[in-house]
């Protein structure tokens, strides 16, 4: 449905192109469609240029506004001209950097729909731009407009009234909200507004919906997801109120985005009387005259409007605006029109590009013919531009940027145009600097939020591989399109490629294969990002070789994969690539490589943020390395404290189960041992050292080795433990209490086994008889490491065939769930059910009972030693 229409005719002269751009811009701005103005102006400029310059005919331009978008039609009077078609055998679109033939290619790239229509007298090219979803953020309205320029609204304007309580839940939903979004009140009341709001998520760089609901007033744009699942762009006005009982809530007024004028607050102006302003006529402020009204309220919009107006003012073919870095040594491209994409965003050039005033961005300059001085303006190399005028943007004598307008014909500009452009630049410099500082402050807040979140994530793990993955995932795609992490084991080692990530998962394998084939970047300990051309050079060389190989094979023998994979990888790494050193504790431990795809550059602010991230990531990676080394040492020490192997005891089944609690970063605690003393005699021990860590490990190692040494010297059980007690006390402050069950085992010829045991403060061993009865196999005696003079004695136990001796540490008997504890009685109950089981089955059943006793995993080490004398096998009949 057509809601508005505007038309104009332009003569076949060069200045008609600028006039057509102005016509389309003013028409769409009058309709309130600022979001699509830039694309419409670019496409109109190319199509009108084809008509009035290349075809040499009058151009008819028609703008049509419909419900879903804007259609722009450009017709000329030369229908015999052939339309370039894109097909296998026909013509191809021209290159976008070429002077002519770009209109249809741009239509295909920018327009939602486009086409070409012929009549007997006209050829018409049309394109349609759909209304986009507006980004979230506060917006300001423009000044009063004449009736003919007022925005169009539906015959019935619906204002949805939604009230949100202090918890963010919808408490009221009026009839207009029901009509706008399709929800009945009973469907929506009580649900969070955040479930419906489609708010573009950029952490730290803007107000979120939850924050907006807490402000006293808020006004801006976002989307509401309707009952049909579609997101409707709305303009909202929020007011924070308090009811009679003092409870706060927020009233939200919502209208369709295209009807935003119903709610939008008036723009702040000077404190002058409205009647006086009306008498004076239109505003005469130079800034408003150049930029237009309403002025964009964001930096990118202001810069893009500036370059468009500068190009129109001087009737140029291209324009660009660069902003200076903080140290005023480089200029960064922030907005452009009429230039290839590679020159449009974040490319950097030096402020002093050459000698003399024409090589410095600090002074106005006019180049009549760039072909005579190649490279004088680096941004315009190979763009077809012949003449250019550039002027500086200065605030209080400090260089803040540079504005340039270029044309494809030579000698287009003189000092008069430079003065006009300088006058305009002086008018906008302060506004641009204010907008830039506002954007920097917003970015810094976002960077701080990003770094806080990154620090929390990095501090939450001590695993090396997970740290590497987090480093890559935090940079892609937030800071870069792809990332690679190199690690350095020591100063003498070469960097090793440890992790690769690309925002497109299908590109990861190709990117990793490419990086594996080339030399890693050089290790430089100095901070800051530095460029690296290795991936770009290798990718393009590989793509070229693959293309030549496929051509030499011919179409019939071409490999099925073709050059596509190589070309895709070359495109993925074809932009700027930087390397940041990972330095921790004054040592280079790796490198973080960030890359962009073809023709893309990094923002200086993002590089600074990446440097901060690399410092935090380097420390986290080094902490993970140190933790891994400590864990490996602890585990190695723990293994050294356990028996290397378990001997076979003739006539006796022996089973040992050992379970260490925790993450393996501590040593000491429980231990066990089983070893031969001499022919026919075996020693066994199970003990528990008080505490953990190196001191406990020292006592554990002392106990295990002293037991073996003393037993093999012929000492009996009491003598062995008394001497071990003395050795522990000799450790002084490093000594620890030790509970120990020590015994000697003698298998007998009649199938039984004789044991002599000493139980020094340890849980008593339990004997399971064949009839299912359970009894203690020893009496308690003092633990070791407390008293100097111990009088210990040993007790003899005979295990008959079928009997089981069970020895455990207190990690088994002290297993808890709340106030309940397994205890000795619980262990006896478990052992009672083990009649007839092998030693391995007995140990396993005890372990299972301990694990099932509580839902939480065990918090203490456990050692289980089960010995059973098997029953004799029946004789053959």
TrEMBL record:
The keyword Hydrolase applies. Keywords: Hydrolase. Signal peptide: none annotated. GO terms for molecular function: phosphatase activity. One of its GO terms (biological process) is regulation of DNA-templated transcription. InterPro entries: Bact_Sigma-Reg, GAF, GAF-like_dom_sf, HATPase_C_sf, HATPase_dom, PAS, PAS-like_dom_sf, PAS_fold. Residues 161-191 form the PAS domain. NCBIfam families: sensory_box. This is PAS domain S-box protein.
């Amino acid at each position: 449905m057509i809601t508005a229409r505007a038309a104009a005719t332009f003569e076949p002269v060069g200045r008609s192109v600028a006039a057509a751009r102005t016509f389309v811009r003013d028409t769409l701005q009058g309709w309130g469609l600022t979001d699509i103005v830039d694309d419409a102006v670019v496409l109109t400029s190319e199509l009108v240029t084809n008509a009035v310059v290349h075809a040499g005919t009058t151009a008819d331009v028609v703008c049509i506004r419909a419900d879903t978008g804007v259609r722009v039609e450009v017709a000329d009077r030369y229908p015999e001209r052939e339309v370039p078609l894109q097909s296998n055998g026909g013509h191809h679109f021209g290159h976008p950097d070429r002077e002519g033939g770009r209109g249809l290619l741009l239509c295909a790239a920018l327009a939602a729909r486009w086409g070409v229509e012929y009549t007997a007298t006209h050829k018409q090219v049309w394109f349609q731009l759909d209304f986009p979803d507006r980004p979230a953020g506060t917006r300001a309205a423009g000044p009063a407009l004449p009736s003919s320029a007022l925005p169009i609204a539906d015959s019935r304007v619906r204002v949805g009234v939604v009230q949100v309580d202090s918890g963010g839940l919808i408490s009221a939903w009026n009839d207009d909200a029901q009509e706008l979004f399709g929800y009945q009140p009973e469907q929506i009341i009580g649900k969070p507004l955040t479930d419906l709001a489609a708010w573009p998520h950029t952490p730290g760089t803007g107000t979120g919906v939850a924050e907006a609901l807490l402000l006293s007033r808020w006004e801006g744009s976002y989307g509401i997801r309707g009952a049909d699942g579609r997101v409707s762009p709305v303009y909202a006005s929020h007011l924070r109120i308090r009811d009679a009982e003092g409870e706060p809530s927020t009233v939200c007024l919502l209208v369709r985005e295209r009807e935003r004028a119903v709610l939008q607050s008036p723009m702040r102006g000077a404190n002058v009387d409205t009647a006086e302003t009306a008498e004076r006529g239109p505003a005469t402020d130079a800034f408003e005259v150049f930029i237009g009204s309403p002025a964009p309220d964001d930096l990118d919009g202001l810069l893009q409007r500036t370059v468009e107006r500068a190009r129109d003012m001087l009737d140029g073919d291209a324009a660009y605006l660069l902003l200076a870095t903080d140290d005023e040594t480089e200029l960064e491209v922030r907005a452009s029109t009429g230039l290839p994409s590679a020159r449009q965003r974040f490319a950097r050039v030096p402020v002093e590009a050459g000698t003399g005033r024409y090589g410095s961005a600090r002074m106005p300059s006019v180049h009549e013919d760039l072909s005579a001085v190649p490279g004088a303006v680096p941004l315009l190399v190979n763009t077809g531009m012949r003449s250019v005028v550039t002027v500086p943007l200065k605030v209080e004598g400090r260089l803040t940027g540079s504005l340039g307008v270029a044309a494809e014909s030579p000698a287009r500009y003189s000092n008069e145009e430079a003065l006009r452009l300088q006058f305009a630049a002086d008018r906008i410099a302060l506004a641009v600097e204010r907008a830039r500082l506002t954007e920097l402050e917003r970015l810094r807040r976002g960077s701080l939020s990003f770094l806080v979140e990154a620090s929390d994530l990095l501090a939450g793990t001590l695993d090396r591989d997970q740290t590497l993955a987090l480093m890559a995932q935090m940079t892609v795609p937030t800071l870069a399109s792809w990332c690679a992490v190199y690690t350095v084991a020591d100063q003498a080692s070469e960097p090793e490629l440890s992790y690769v990530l690309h925002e497109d998962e299908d590109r990861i394998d190709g990117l990793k294969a490419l990086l594996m084939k080339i030399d890693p970047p050089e290790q430089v300990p100095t901070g800051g990002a530095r460029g690296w051309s290795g991936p770009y050079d290798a990718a393009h060389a590989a793509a070229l070789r693959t293309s030549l190989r496929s051509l030499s094979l011919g179409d019939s023998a071409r490999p099925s994969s073709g050059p596509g994979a190589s070309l895709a990888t070359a495109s993925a790494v074809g932009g700027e690539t930087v390397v940041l050193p990972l330095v921790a504790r004054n040592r280079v431990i790796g490198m973080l490589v960030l890359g962009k795809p073809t023709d893309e550059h990094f923002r200086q602010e993002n590089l600074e943020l990446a440097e901060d991230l690399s410092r935090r990531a380097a420390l986290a990676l080094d902490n993970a390395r140190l933790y891994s080394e400590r864990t490996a040492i602890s585990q190695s020490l723990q293994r050294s404290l356990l028996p290397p192997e378990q001997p076979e005891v003739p006539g006796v089944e022996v089973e040992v189960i050992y379970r260490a609690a925790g993450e393996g970063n501590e040593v000491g605690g429980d231990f066990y041992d089983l070893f031969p003393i001499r022919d026919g005699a075996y020693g066994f021990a199970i003990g528990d050292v008080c505490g953990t860590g190196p001191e406990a490990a020292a006592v554990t190692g002392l106990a295990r080795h002293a037991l073996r040494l003393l037993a093999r010297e012929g000492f009996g059980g009491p003598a062995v433990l008394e001497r071990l007690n003395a050795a522990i006390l000799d450790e002084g402050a490093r000594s620890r209490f030790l509970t120990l069950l020590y015994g000697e085992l003698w298998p007998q010829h009649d199938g039984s086994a004789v044991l002599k045991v000493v139980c020094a403060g340890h849980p008593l061993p339990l004997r399971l008889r064949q009839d299912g009865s359970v009894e203690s196999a020893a009496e308690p005696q003092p633990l070791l490491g407390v008293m100097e003079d111990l009088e210990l004695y040993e007790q003899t136990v005979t295990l008959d065939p079928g009997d089981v001796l069970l020895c455990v540490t207190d990690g088994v008997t002290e297993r808890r769930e709340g106030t309940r504890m397994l205890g000795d009685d619980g262990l006896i109950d478990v052992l009672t059910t083990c009649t007839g089981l092998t030693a391995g089955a007995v140990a396993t059943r005890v372990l299972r009972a301990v694990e099932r006793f509580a839902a939480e995993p065990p918090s203490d080490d456990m050692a289980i030693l089960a010995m059973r004398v098997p029953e004799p096998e029946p004789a053959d009949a």
